[in-house]
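idk why but the lab printer keeps eating my pages so im just putting this in chat instead. protein + flavin mononucleotide:
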Amino acid sequence: MNRFDNLFSTIKIRGMELSNRVVMPPMGTLLGNPDGTVSEAVIAYLKRRAEGGPGLIMTEIVGVHPNGLSINTQLSAFDDRFIPGLKRLVDVAHERDIKIAMQIHHAGRESFFMLAEGKAIGPSAIPSLIYGMPPREMTEEDIGEIIQAFGSAARRAREAGFDAVEVHGAHGYLLTQFLSELSNQRTDGYGGSMKNRARFVTEILAEVRKEVGDNFPISLRLSVDECIKGGYTARDIAPILPDFVSAGADMIHASFGTHGSPGGITSAPIEYEPGFNAWLAREVKEAVNVPVIAVGRFTEPALADAVIARKDADLVAFGRQFLADPDFLIKAKEGRSGDICTCIACNQGCIERLMLGEGKIRCAINPETGQETIYPEGPAAKPRTVWVIGAGPGGLTAANEAARLGHDVTLFEEKSETGGLVRIGSKAPFKKAYGEWIEWLTREIEKRGVKILTNTTASDEMIGKTHPEMVILATGGKPIVPDIPGIDLDNVCDALEVLAGNEKPGNNVVVLGGGQTGMEVADFAASKGSSVTIVEMLKRSPVMKLTSHGYMLHRRVRESGCTLLLNTTVKKIEKDSVIIESEGEERTLSPVDQVIIAAGIEPLDNLTKTLEEEHIPYFIIGDAKKPRRIMEATDEGAKAAWDI
Ligand SMILES: Cc1cc2nc3c(=O)[nH]c(=O)nc-3n(C[C@H](O)[C@H](O)[C@H](O)COP(=O)(O)O)c2cc1C
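predcted complex ->
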């Protein structure tokens, strides 16, 4: 059995002794109070992560100045009034003998609402890469004020009882804006050479050190590589790392990427291998002699242990893995690594939900995350017999949660396997982990004693005869078959059939529909050597390049030579060609030996009438209600179970 001796070894950082090498890195939650103080929700969220036993927890970004907030509800430390709330975060960690650092942050130009209110500042008046609006160029007076603000916030962290602070110098926020030539074109002592551009960071570190005293550890989070065209690289920044250490940094957190880095690489999608950027930590270790944290798609303790063993890094940060399964370390320690729910890097509940303004932090595969204050501990006051009909992600989650709460659950699935569309979709390139998550969830419900009836259709007669006390309808959807001449021809098939392996991709393929399934089946067919044209009737691709998987999908589809025709409809399918129309003009795609339909799905509902007649209470969840993503299906599944 792997005992993870490296991961579970202690380490000292300027007197702060950590019980292991695992760091929970800063993750913004939006769970704070509207006035920037700590809320019960933040405390509950952090407490749940502390129960998992990392050596060091870092808070999410905490604002040092009112003009540097990313969002108007961001946790803050620009005034002493924030100290009592911050103390409560410290207690959460210290009650469990865990060390906690506060991350201090200024957004600079990367704040939509500061830009919109004309309050954003930056090294130069160069527009934000994301929001397209310019900040005001900082005067030397502004620079002095912000340096002091970092120092004061660090002092408040120490007063609140934190064990350390982390200066946020990464991801395109103000400090990175100074470090990067792309955002800093100053001609004074804070611009020009790398050394000059780094001056702002070194002065902040010196001020923080002055405020917190000699015995208080300071971590510096850096984007060691900006991962953007024209940005700085590890080679550029390496020579100035010793200056950061001399100025006060006791540890370097080797992150990467900036706002606008293609594909949201900072919280990298599934296309990136676990631990893919550990080499950056190694580069930092070669430049300075302080502990270095590696980060980036770490999900498995075994890999983190190996990274420390080979001295690429001294500590390893697991970000999204702490959202998917806060207990993963305990499971690893107890020799139960197989029980870990592994993050699938879908980003639906976490970073993209925050970025796209969809709401507070969640996790698509862990319904407890971000909802700790309403998550029922169980058991339910009255155990009931519950039928869950349909074993896609929503149905599986509903069954898992209902069984966890003590209900007697039977799960019906027409197909021979659980997982629904997610299992089929996991056959697309890079999506294997989605299938593994389905396997994990299926094992969980088996362990909880859910009766799983595959190859079984729950019928009206069965419902009438057995009369379960509660039914959760998770029957999903059925593929939409568009009304197009030729749709019945032999060369036409459904995308799900292709992904499931029941139909082989043809040589010259037309995919009808450029949504996620259409793009993924195109990606799949192209990976098997097909020449693919995707026909989409919308003017803009429905797969957002703003999402990281969306970006990667677009890139792969383009690079593999697929053609994406937008604003185009299919008029007719023929034996070896397809007639399309765009802006009133018809043309023929030929030769075409296969037409794959990916026109979306529509809800499947065939049991509600009986349930109504029998007066059996029921919930409709996931795609059976309205076709959407995993995030919505699991959330509705969990909530139905909680509401039984
Ligand atoms: C929801 C979310 C919020 C984040 N907020 C912060 C933040 O406040 N400060 C920060 O330095 N990094 C932030 N990050 C980046 C993470 O700390 C981490 O570097 C990144 O997710 C990569 O690690 P992972 O692959 O283990 O998730 C955030 C990431 C996520 C997913």
